Amino acid sequence: RKQGRRIKRKTQKETDTSDQASELPPRAFVFSKGKVSAPLKALVNDLKGVMSPNTARALKAQRRNKIKDFVDVAGSLHVSFFLIVSSTEQSSYLRLVRSPRGPTLTFRIRSYALAADLAATLRRPYSAGNAVWQSNPLLVLSDFDQSQQEQSLAATMLRNLFPPINVQTLQISACRRIVMLHQRPAEEGGGVELRQYVIKAAPTNVSRGAPRSSRIKKLTRGNRVPSLGRYGSMADYLAGRGGYSSESGGETDDDEKVDLPQDYVGRGAVRDQRVGVRLHEIGPRLSLELVKVQEGVCDGAVLF
What we know:
Blueprint: H1 18-22, E1 28-32, H2 38-51, H3 67-74, E2 81-87, E3 92-98, E4 104-113, H4 115-120, E5 138-142, H5 149-160, E6 177-183, E7 192-203, H6 209-220, H7 234-238, E8 257-259, E9 274-281, E10 285-294
Parallel strand pairs: 1-2, 5-6
Antiparallel strand pairs: 2-3, 3-4, 4-10, 6-7, 7-9, 7-10, 8-9
GO molecular function: rRNA binding
Protein name: Brix domain-containing protein
InterPro entries: Brix, PPAN-like
C-alpha cells in the first residue's frame, strides 16, 4: 500500500506453461472454405465426427472469414490443426494445416463416400450413439514409407492429429472407434485411404437360437405375422437370411476372439469373458492424393 491506496502489481492471470499445454490432447477446426457443394458440406460434418471429441462440432465458417481469423483464435483455444475442405472447377481438396506456423499438406479428394451413403447400402446399418463420439479413436497407420520424405511428413502430421495412447492407464471401454489411414502402393495408384469403424464385442458362448427366437416373438407380437414368402423354408428364415444375422460372436474366427481384461460396452462383455471382436464401418470413406506440401499456413513456399 502507498498512502493508504493499494498498489496493483499483477495485471493479468498467468497463462498456461508450455508443459501444461503439451499435456492437452490435439484439437482441430474442421470447416469449408469458399463455395462448396452440399455433399462436401456433409463431408465436413462427417470429418468432425472423425475428429471428435477434440473439435468444435458447431463451428461454421462464414465467407468473409479468412485463415488468419482462425489462426488468431486457435492459440487461446489450444487448437493446433485445421482441416479445410475446398473445391474448384477441376477438383475438391482437403488441406491439413498445422497452426500457427505450418506446414500445410494439400490432398486432392479422388473420391469419397459419406456416412449416409454407406448406411444406405446396408440392410441393417449400425447407428452410432452419442457415447461413441465422446472418446478418442484408435489410429492405425498402414504402409507409409518413412524413407520417402513426403510420406514421412504426412504420417507424422496424421499421427499428431490424435492423442497418443497410454497403455498403463488405458480403459478399453473408451476404445469405441478405429480410424485407419492406409498408404496404397504406387502400382495400385498410390494415395491415402481413410476409413472409420466402430468396435463391437459379442460373447462367443451365446446360443444362436436364443436371439432369433426373441426376434420371432417381437415380430409376431400383436398378431403381426412376418412375411416368409421370400424364404424357401423356415430353416432359411432361422438361418438369418435377409438381414436377420446373429448377434453372437460365435461366427467369428479364432484370431478375432479375445478374453476381456476389463469390462467393455455391450451385453455380456464383462471381464474375463471370451468375446468376438467385430468392426462396423460407419464412414466417411475417402481416397486422397497428396499434391502439395507448403512450409507455412496455406500460403508458404512449396517444399515438395
